[in-house]
User: What shape does this take?
Amino acid sequence: MAIAKVQNIQGDSGSSYVNTKTATWPGDVTSGNFLTLCVVTSNSSTSAVLSVTDTSGNTWTKLDSFAGTGGMSLDFWYCKNCVGGTTPTVLVTLAIS
Assistant: This one.
């Protein structure tokens, strides 16, 4: 089976500091899919992604993180063989100091 982008979600906390951020898929997620997530944070010295969970009970694994320029940080997470479900919500928990 070829890899294909099925749908995407985007969340933005604006300029405020938040400990958690949620985003809901616009449609159902099919069981067995491979899900990816990229979390972009600003002020990388004061925030870090602690965990990623979702309402379907999937296991999310951190792949890697990169410090970018201008205080930006990228964290990449994935979920292999997802449970799927009706418009699941992803919850990202951040450590903010």
In short: The chain has a mean pLDDT of 82. The chain is about 0% helix and 45% strand. The beta strands are 20-24, 35-41, 47-54, 61-67, 73-79, 89-96. The longest strand covers residues 47-54.
